[in-house]
Design brief:
By secondary structure, the protein is mostly helical. The protein has one domain. About 75% of the residues lie in helices and about 0% in strands. The chain has four helices and no strands. Helix 1 packs antiparallel against helix 2. The mean pLDDT is about 80.
């Protein structure tokens, strides 16, 4: 949803402003997802189940 808002704002803001919006609104959300993922993996605590999952950070770098 936040990405959709950012996409809609493209016509009204400069690239620098869009980058600032991304860094302030979207990146923190992704960092929260990383923390949630690491906690979930600790709860599961089974390498046979978690080894096949790609971490969010790796998926973002693709």
């Amino acid at each position: 949803m936040k990405l959709d808002i950012l996409r809609r704002l493209c016509q009204f803001f400069s690239l620098l402003q869009l980058r600032t919006l991304y860094k302030d609104l979207i990146r923190p959300f992704l960092l929260v997802l990383d923390r949630v993922e690491s906690k979930a993996l600790r709860f599961i605590d089974s390498s046979s189940l978690t080894d096949c999952l790609q971490p969010f950070s790796r998926l973002r770098n693709v």
